[in-house]
Amino acid sequence: MGRGISLGALLLACVVALTGCSIPPVTTHARADGSTVSLAWADYPGHAYVDADDILATPGIDEIEAHGHALIEAIQAEVAAETGIHLTMHGGEGQFHGFDSNGYGSPTLLTSYSCCSLVAEAVPAEFADWMRVYGIVARISAEFGAGPMIREQDQEWVRDDPEQLAEFETTWTTGVEGEYSLLSAWTTGSGQSVMLTMEDPARRLAASDAEKETGPRFSVDYSATVIERGKRAEFEERLAPFAGAEKPDSTEWEW
């Protein structure tokens, strides 16, 4: 593992720059053999809110673009075959964007990748077909290692909060039990992200006339988080001391 970042130097930099940043946490972790180890999270190579195992299971930076395109194209083809709706591909040139930090005020070895999107100004006529599309996108995403895909109202933060769930149902209800004017779903892993959105304002009871005139929208978006080029061995080496340890919350911002 490379040299750690001096906590004193970080603190001094914060004071001098008057940024008010927090000191990276140091925790104690009990190993399986009964020994304990002190972990300085300034040295963590990933990110506070990204699962390292998901990252290691995600195709590498040199493979992710072809992988993402293959996933998107598989969805495009099957949706067209099943519904007759042709999703147009946008943003075929993928882009990489570096992370600002590891969530603890130090550099990370991770970078994000934004791929192409599929879009259409049409949605299936029947809500049952919306659910079929959801099933298609969820299945193909899982086949490509992304998933599970969960609808917004089934996400834990909505499902387990009566106020959030009631707000969702009131906002998007069509008046038909179990049918909504919005189907929003996304995969829950840290490595790959697939997001599906289908919306038809004309179906929404609470929509204004102006909102209804905007028309339907249908989109599928893909992105991923990967290890920087040539850094996988370093990532694994620096990650090893943190194996099994519970990550503290980010000292910088909420995900």
UniProtKB/TrEMBL annotation:
* Official protein name in the record: Lipoprotein
